[in-house]
Amino acid sequence: MKYMIKATIGLFAAIMFAPQLVLAENASPEIERVRAELVKMVPPAADAEILTTPAKGVYRLELDGGFYYAYVDGDHILFGDLINTESKINLGEVAKSERTSQIISSTSLDKMIVYGPKDAKRHITVFTDIDCGYCRKLHQEVPELTAAGIQVRYLAFPRAGVGSESHKKYVSVWCNADQQTALTDAKAGKAIAPASCENPVEETYLLGRKVGVEGTPTIIFDDGTVTPGYIPSAQLIDRLGLGSPTASN
């Protein structure tokens, strides 16, 4: 099986180190020397996890929530993506999906506003902002998704950040006795009575940042695949292998 490195231009290029450095999965003196050099350019490398990969001489590092691959030849380290030349699969994206799936699956439903049956066939998790136009468009299609057997799980992600008006609106929705109706009304542009209570809005916003969310809606499929942006309900239903809800009637 063959692999190729697709170099990342900009943040990382070729980084020269002392000769004969070899990365390993233990805290060897060589690893610590590599870390010391990396930290000069990328401070988060101080806590980076270093793992072996199927490709000889190539190692995976997790830095600041992202995955990077390093090819070591004794004098240089080249950072980039690792791609299987036969399957064309980007192993970095696979690793990211696996990590995202673990993080999202460990997030309690108690921190989400959920639409759809508890025994749904499939589910999607959506980072959403009340004032986001495409979030509102997607929400209008939630009935079609739930009719097809898809549970929609919302996590708050106020794009303007913690303390913003969007953040305050979501807190008011969360603190409403009927969260589902309140969220639907808010996404329809209706005023929601201000309210405050213990809520997970800041926590889920930071969670979104951790898994690389940059905009809304960001849809996370139940296999951990992350897709930014709006996707029509018909495409979501097909992608989840459930066919058209009208076709089953």
From TrEMBL:
Keywords for this protein: Disulfide bond, Periplasm, Redox-active center, Signal
Broad class of where this protein is predominantly found: periplasm
Q: Outline what the protein does.
A: Required for disulfide bond formation in some periplasmic proteins. Acts by transferring its disulfide bond to other proteins and is reduced in the process.
Q: Matching SUPFAM superfamilies, A to Z?
A: DsbC/DsbG N-terminal domain-like, Thioredoxin-like
Q: Where is the signal peptide?
A: 1-24
Q: Which organism is it from?
A: Arenicella xantha
* Any one GO CC term of the record: periplasmic space
All copies of the Disulphide bond isomerase DsbC/G N-terminal domain together span: 26-91
Give yes or no: UniProt keyword Disulfide bond: yes
What's this protein's name? Thiol:disulfide interchange protein
Limits of the Thioredoxin-like fold domain: 119-239
Location(s), subcellular: Periplasm
Q: Which InterPro entries match?
A: DiS-bond_Isoase_DsbC/G, DiS-bond_isomerase_DsbC/G_N, DiS-bond_isomerase_DsbC/G_N_sf, Thiol:disulfide_interchange, Thioredoxin-like_fold, Thioredoxin-like_sf
What's this protein's family per the entry? Belongs to the thioredoxin family. DsbC subfamily.
